[in-house]
Design brief:
alpha+beta, 2 domains, 4-stranded antiparallel beta sheet, about 60% helix, about 120 residues, 3 helices, 4 strands
Length: about 120
């Protein structure tokens, strides 16, 4: 075991990742579930998708891309609203922006829960 990727594995564990009983299909290294719910290979330095028996690979990849696109869209909206909020002076408009931010944060939280 190379000390570089052994250090990477230790770093993942210290950051709260969980070592799984599955191994990477490419290198055979143990896989880790990150706090975000993603499955990660420390040796290959890339994300791994585990298919359940009978699952269609294309459908799983498409679903994962959909989740990522949706999460990215929510994060971009949050960033934009954050900028608007910091510049806004009118109390009613501040309330509207804050409500929108709250709704987006709730949506992001639900999305991340569903991804796991």
């Amino acid at each position: 075991m190379s000390s570089d990727w052994a250090r990477e594995m230790a770093k993942l564990l210290r950051s709260g990742a969980t070592m799984l009983s599955y191994s990477c299909p490419e290198c055979g290294s143990p896989l880790f579930r990150l706090k975000s719910g993603e499955i990660w290979c420390a040796r290959c330095q890339k994300r791994v998708i585990i298919l359940r028996e009978g699952e269609d690979e294309a459908a799983v990849v498409q679903r994962e891309l959909l989740w990522e696109n949706l999460e990215g869209a929510i994060l971009r909206k949050l960033s934009r609203l954050s900028g608007l909020l910091s510049e806004e002076e009118e109390p009613e408009r501040i309330r509207e922006i804050a409500e929108s931010i709250s709704t987006l944060l709730t949506s992001l939280q639900r999305l991340r829960r569903l991804k796991k």
